[in-house]
Amino acid sequence: MGGHEVPRTAGVPDGDDEGISARRPDTPACPDCGRPQELRPTAAGHWVLLEPEPLPVAEVPDGRQWFLGEDGRAVGRRRGAPPPSEQCRIAHLPVCGRQEFSAHRAPLCNAVWLGNRAREGLPYE
Predict the structure, then answer these.
(1) Positions of E strands within the chain
(2) Which helix (H) or strand (E) holds 41?
């Protein structure tokens, strides 16, 4: 998966690899597809590439939600449930168009994956 060997750490969303990096990447572009993303430091002192568009928190699985703190850091967990009208962000790596289709993604995440795949000009059967 192209340089994403950093183990999961406390303070980041649950689930499969979110593309967390202990070292700040040289560029905010995805190492797999090359598209620019939003590079953010995490509350745990790591780095994550986030999809640029916010999504409704009610449609993103709990373990995939990222929130931006007042200091600009990406925070994976909050106390209490956010209101359904709130928006969150998702990590780019799980929805990168260069990743394979996964039936385990939430429908909205698969929609983002399909959009990324289409932007790459890749088939999306």
Answers:
(1) 38-41, 47-50, 55-56, 67-68, 74-75, 87-88
(2) strand 38-41
At 26, the amino acid letter reads: D
Q: Which residue intervals of 1-125 are DSSP H helices?
A: 107-119
Check the CA dihedral 58-65-95-15 and report its sign: negative
**Residue 108: strand, helix, or coil:** helix
pLDDT digits (tens, 9 = 90+) for 39-86: 999 988 999 999 999 999 989 988 889 999 999 999 986 666 777 778
pLDDT given for residue 4 in this prediction:
33
Closest to 21 in 3D by CA, of 69, 74, 87 = 74
Contact 90, 64 (CB under 8 A): yes
Count CB neighbours of 35 within 10 A: 17
Distance CA 11, CA 40 (A): 14
Cα–Cα–Cα angle for 64, 92, 96, rounded to 5 degrees:
120
